[in-house]
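Record 1 of the preview.
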Amino acid sequence: MKTHYQILIIGGGTAGITIAAQLKRKDSSLDMAIIEPSDKHYYQPAWTLVGAGTFDFQDTVRDEADFIPKGVDWIKDKATSIEPDVNRVGTANSGTITYDYLIPVPGLVMAPELLPGLTEAMDKGVVCSNYTDPEHTWEVIKNFKGGNAVFTQPTTPIKCGGAPQKIMYMAEDYFRKNGIRDKTNVLFATPGTTIFGVPEFAKTLNKIIHDRNIIFKPFYAPVKIDAEKQEIYFRYSKPGESNCTVMEGNPLGEELVGALDIKVHFDMLHIAPPQAAPKFIQESKVSIQEGPGKGWIDVDIHTMQHKRYPNIFSIGDVAHLPTAKTGAAIRKQAPVLVENLLQLIKTGKISQKSYEG
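->
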């Protein structure tokens, strides 16, 4: 087995496969490998539809081997460490692999342990998540008979920031068509400040939630789940606010706990779990060591080149970029990375290609 590659890619998801394919298309002589442990590739954007009962989960699954570009070696293993000072990557079973250029794009990992009570509750009973088990989400929605249907997301960055809303709209439509909407409170609670970050889209979405009588609660950060009692606790996180007011007799039955915590009973709960970069990224020097971006790969937001290690590039979910962690973002980031890396290999300098978000 080879232990050195000109270009080493960590991760065989959307970013890794896209980059490998574009690099090979532009220069078939490149010596490349992808480190990826999974036999299967999942088309996760369709999991929202699976959770809403409009798409078959099996149709989102493909063999990973079908996506590895011809001429690229597949190291079917898990990366466990990156030592950028010596150009070396550790693996679980394949020893160490060295590289000339590294592209770490392993994607996010679910971190339910960051929200007390979620690990025990995850994908059981009336608690569900399209991020982990969309088939269970559909079972929960089908079996829902009325009450509080709560949809929420964590304070951490997440894959596809719109996904927690998408399933909420589709569930609300299902409740309406099945005659239980009049005995259902649909709540969308988010730590964010608005329904959506782009004003033009927010205007339309605000109209939709108004027309459909969806209860929208911004500045609601989930802090604890009690699955047994079917209760979720939110902390009111509006800047400058030192206390929160809850009206008596409110339709959700919200209860104030202390100055800023709100308890809400749920009859179904859909939650995007907290998410993080894999530990081997967080513990490596490739990540930002301190400050707001701690744990994310330290790349230039325009060139995709690492700020401290010029032979390392990254895009997608683990890169510290001020854009959404989506396949759509990767589609625009990948050509920038590819062009800059090829120019670096050929001339010793990156190109003028720049990512503008």
